[in-house]
Amino acid sequence: MSSSLFQFNTLCTQLCREHRSLRITLNRAEKENEINMETLFELESILRWASANVEIQSLLIDSSSARFSAGLKNYQSLEADKIIKLQEKTLSIQKLIMQCPQNVIVDYGEGADNLGIDLFLCADLRLAHRGAKFKWDYLAHGLPALGSAFVFKEIAGLNQYKNWIFSAATIQTQSLESCGFLANCYDSENRQEVIEQYLESFCSQSAGCRIQNKLNINQHLIFAFEQTLKSEFSVFQGALYSQDWKKSADNFTPAKEIKNAVRMTLIKNEQEA
User: Fold this and answer.
1) Would you say 253 and 242 are in contact if contact means Cβ atoms under 8 Å apart?
2) How far is it, in rounded angstroms, from Cα 109 to Cα 187?
3) For residue 186, how many C-alpha atoms fall within 13 Å in the half-sphere facing its CB?
4) pTM score
5) Is the pLDDT of residue 3 over 80?
6) Which of 96, 116, 114 is nearest to 106 (CA)?
7) 192: Cβ–Cβ under 8 A, 6 or more apart, which residues?
8) CA–CA dist 103, 215 (Å, integer)
9) Which CATH architecture does the domain made up of 11-204 adopt?
10) What's the rounded Cα separation, in Å, for the pair 124 and 198?
11) How far apart are the C-alpha atoms of 180 and 109, rounded to whole Å?
12) Distances in Å between the alpha carbon of 16 and those of 20, 97, 120?
């Protein structure tokens, strides 16, 4: 590995010449590698750079802590416009991962929560430690899900999506591996071996054929993703009316008010279209 490629505040980036791979590491272990706006800007920046450098064969995204990311924290002070920007950046990063010419591996380590999971849903391969635990707990915190619901359903399946997002239960790797969400689960002693096998495989493939196959696989997903963004974003904006993320659970906004807010947002967006 080379020394850090760029000077970021929340990421560490290293090139591996042997595998022609770029390693992107979430690098705020003291903050549980939580995701903030700076992290999103830096991720978007490095992904755009990688997309323009096709000689890089693969991207490995991991974390400086055993647990990949605590996701979105300290959101109680955020205003609605900041939540919207978080959503916009999240969707941009999901799309960049689908479009970039490299194969993308994300190693979730010992698990992640909410946005820490969703940011990298579109990775070509998702790995985790066999004992990892995951939690999609947006709703319990008064937040609408920040990633694309359409992409989530396409990758994990509709029933799995419902189970995970509505239960807010802790999900074990067995469930995630059986539905194909995780490509591989490793033990602590063979983590490096598992990752290197994937990187070596990508490096030994025809770059042109590999890129073409990735784009062919993702083409329909990207098209449908773009088609559904407008309607998803309208509902997302309507849900922000409540500002429930600033409240305790026993003070969440009544459902009737939310229903009216979402309906009015949809009507407003239709009139502006």
Assistant:
1) yes
2) 10
3) 18
4) 0.90
5) no
6) 116
7) none
8) 10
9) Alpha-Beta Complex (3.90)
10) 11
11) 17
12) 6, 19, 21
Q: What is the DSSP track for the chain? A: -PSPSS--SSEEEEEETTTTEEEEEE--GGGTT---HHHHHHHHHHHHHHHT-TT--EEEEEESSSB-B--S-S-TT--HHHHHHHHHHHHHHHHHHHHSSSEEEEE-BTEEEHHHHHTTTT-SEEEEETT-EEE--TGGGT----S-HHHHHHHH-HHHHHHHHHH-PPEEHHHHHHTTS-SEEE-GGGHHHHHHHHHHHHHHS-HHHHHHHHHHHHHHHHHHHHHHHHHHHHHHHHHGGG-GGGS-GGGPPPHHHHHHHHHHHHHHHHHH-
Confidence class of residue 160 from pLDDT cuts 50, 70 and 90?
confident
Q: Kindly state the tokens that stand for 68.
A: 């990949």
Q: What are phi and psi of 132, to 5 degrees?
A: -65, 155
Yes or no: say if 203 and 58 are a contact pair by the CB < 8 Å rule. Answer: yes
